[in-house]
Design a protein that fits this description.
413 residues; alpha/beta; Alpha-Beta Plaits; TIM Barrel; 2 domains; eight-stranded mixed beta barrel; 39% helix; elongated; EAL domain-containing protein
Length: 413
């Protein structure tokens, strides 16, 4: 338990020393508010309370955490050996904590270290004390500062609550690298808004829940991904984004030309950051490999979707595929967890077959941590799904995320 503000100030005044302060400023509050809709006051209050408790557990009992309008103030009773490093570690841990909840997954954090006189602590805290939970820093700044230039803000998908029925929007699904223990990339997915929820577009079409076309989905995802890569480049940042083209669109000359025009609109160096898959041909390896080889001429990365446990990958030997993906098998029943022994063995053989082609493996639609752990033991490197990090309106930044962090996130959820 950390000290309250009055106790901290009394002790600091008695010592008369300068105090090290860490400021944690929450960014993207407007986006979170739009997503939360009517629940925004509750979501913000929950984020401030949970964030305060999270930080307090990682500080000494004489330190203090103060929730503020823009985030949190951390007051250190004793100066840390390296304040900047300590704030960076706390910020990274807090980001992982917020990633664990769909309500706060879009939040980013900016930190600043400073040192103030003990007599200034009261004024510092007073200027930043949290106000009513229906206010946020982004809204206040927008009334007092000129609007940001269009290129200063990364593109985001429209909040589902503002979308019309059957709208197609892009969302992002983070990919976790088990080998490096970090979020390494994002899949850019086209989703359809049905009944106030964003559902995966391919499934919505397959189950006849929507009348949108495969081309509607592919155009949405590729337009969003290329726009995102360009926006990141303007900020001198890079990120790998995974997109998919449906086989029916690839077979259609007009649709294929339209999609390739969008891809070729990217500068050649940026195209390497686009990892492209052909959907609908997982049971036709030769045809899929030929399509990927043709696609590879445009300078993009290549990914092949194959059946779970597939080991006959010879058709892809000359196609330039660097990643083989498959879906996690559905559970045998409502209570089943993890992988059956024969599934784990099949996955291991698939990993070996991919490695022979100098390619990695990726398991998506991961349903629980037991599946994740078993697949890791079988050698799979990349993972995505609700059990990793939830889909979001903007891509997750590349950052460290350990298996222990994933367990903690699920425990806290």
């Amino acid at each position: 338990m950390t000290a309250d503000l009055k106790t901290f100030i009394r002790r600091a005044m008695a010592r008369g020393e300068r105090i090290d302060v860490g400021q944690f400023r929450l960014l993207n509050l407007n986006a979170v508010r739009e997503q939360a809709g009517e629940n925004w006051p509750s979501v913000k209050k929950k984020a401030l309370v949970a964030g305060t408790q999270f930080l307090a557990k990682r500080l000494d009992e004489d330190d203090a955490v103060i929730p503020c309008e823009e985030g949190f103030l951390v007051l250190f009773a004793s100066a840390p050996d390296n304040p900047a490093d300590m704030l960076a570690a706390l910020s990274e841990a807090l980001m992982r904590f917020f990633l664990g909840s769909p309500d706060t997954a879009d939040l980013s954090i900016e930190t600043e270290a400073s040192r103030v006189d003990a007599s200034d602590i009261t004024q510092l805290a007073a200027t930043r004390v949290a106000t009513a939970p229906d206010m946020d820093a982004d809204a206040r700044r927008s009334r007092t500062q000129p609007p940001m230039e269009p290129e200063a803000r990364l593109p985001r998908s429209c909040p589902v609550t503002e979308c019309e029925e059957d709208s197609v929007i892009a969302q992002y699904r983070p990919l976790w690298d088990a080998q490096k223990q970090l979020l390494a990339a994002n899949a850019c997915l086209a989703k359809v808004v049905i009944g106030g929820r964003a559902l995966e577009g391919r499934r919505a079409i397959a189950t006849r829940m929507s009348r949108v076309s495969q081309m509607d989905l592919d155009s949405c995802a590729i337009d969003a991904a290329t726009a995102m890569l360009l926006a990141l480049a303007r900020k001198q940042k890079r990120m790998t984004l995974r997109v998919a083209i449906h086989a029916s669109c690839w077979a259609n000359d007009t649709h294929r030309a339209t999609l390739l025009d969008t891809i070729n609109g990217l500068p050649a160096p940026l195209r390497k950051s686009l990892l492209v898959r052909i959907d609908g041909l997982s049971d036709q390896p030769a045809k899929q490999a030929a399509a990927l080889a043709e696609l590879g001429k445009h300078g993009v990365g290549l990914m092949a979707e194959i059946p779970f446990g597939e080991t006959e990958l010879g058709a892809f030997a000359q196609s330039g595929v660097s990643l083989f993906s498959c879906a996690s098998p559905p559970p045998m029943n409502a209570n089943s967890e993890g992988l059956m022994d024969h599934d784990a063995r099949a996955l291991n053989q698939m990993v070996k077959a991919a490695a022979a082609l100098k390619a990695a493996t990726y398991l998506h639609d991961v349903r629980d941590l037991h599946v994740l752990k078993a697949a890791m033991a079988s050698g799979v490197r990349f993972f995505s799904g609700q059990t990793v990090v939830a889909d979001r309106a903007a891509p997750a930044p590349g950052q460290a995320l350990s298996m222990i962090d994933l367990y903690r996130m699920h425990k806290a959820a």
